[in-house]
Amino acid sequence: MLKINLQYDWERFHANYCVNIKPGMTTLLGGSGEGKSTLLHLLGGYLEGRGELYFHEASLLSLPAYERPISTLFQSDNLFPQLTVWQNVAIGVSPSLSLNREQKEKVSWALEKTQLVDKVKRFPQALSGGQAQRVAIARALVRKKPILLLDEPFSALDPALREEMLYLVNEVTDELGLTTLLISHLPQEACLVGGRVILIEQGEVIAHEPVSVLSQPEPHALFSNYLGVGVSSRSTI
Ligand SMILES: Nc1ncnc2c1ncn2[C@@H]1O[C@H](COP(=O)(O)OP(=O)(O)OP(=O)(O)O)[C@@H](O)[C@H]1O
């Protein structure tokens, strides 16, 4: 269980997040500027919050980003153009790229998971957008951290590829028992990955429900406010 009770103040924005998150997929929904990224940055250790943050009863708050049991995937997770696919993943384990056998096995495992085994010698410029994103996912996976934070990493991909990436994230979350938090602007993405949804408004978690809340004939009042209309009438991904 990830126990969050965190506060943070931007100049004109006060955030106060209070929620307990179980392993599995959780999608963070909310309008623009409501505080989704701020929460992920606090969890990842990229912003210094006040309050409490526990994972399996261990406090994470005083840990720097690199010591937290967390991998973060951002939209701008660029690959190193001068490194091959294998090296771009291996750098997630060891920045010097000198890996021992166990570390090499980790890299092979992540490349297999992301179906990149036949692309290991390619350079990023010879990859499609989806393949490049898979390399970024492999680099996040290779760190083998139990919490995965996804700050709209797939929003630049076309709908079919985005769907493919979401299936992949869902699959590894299940298989590895990860606690995965995905920021999305599309309620349909939450329906696709399943699990639970959190609604963030003005820097607070105002609802935390199973994803089925989005497809019920009578949606949860708070979610229907956010959606404006029923989910089913919105565009599909
Ligand atoms: N660098 C910053 N300096 C000052 N205020 C900021 C900064 N970043 C964010 N904020 C404030 O925090 C609020 C929440 O921002 P945040 O990026 O967390 O929202 P979001 O829900 O992720 O938005 P979006 O969906 O548009 O990415 C914003 O409305 C803004 O007022």
From TrEMBL:
Record key words, sorted: ATP-binding, Cell inner membrane, Cell membrane, Membrane, Nucleotide-binding, Translocase, Transport
Domain called ABC transporter: residue spans: 1-227
Name under which the protein is recorded: ATP-binding cassette domain-containing protein
Gene Ontology molecular functions: ATP binding; ATP hydrolysis activity
Pfam families assigned to the protein according to its UniProt record, in alphabetical order: ABC_tran
Keyword Metal-binding carried by entry: no
InterPro entries in UniProt: AAA+_ATPase (IPR003593), ABC_SmlMolc_Importer (IPR050093), ABC_transporter-like_ATP-bd (IPR003439), ABC_transporter-like_CS (IPR017871), P-loop_NTPase (IPR027417)
Origin: domain of life: Bacteria
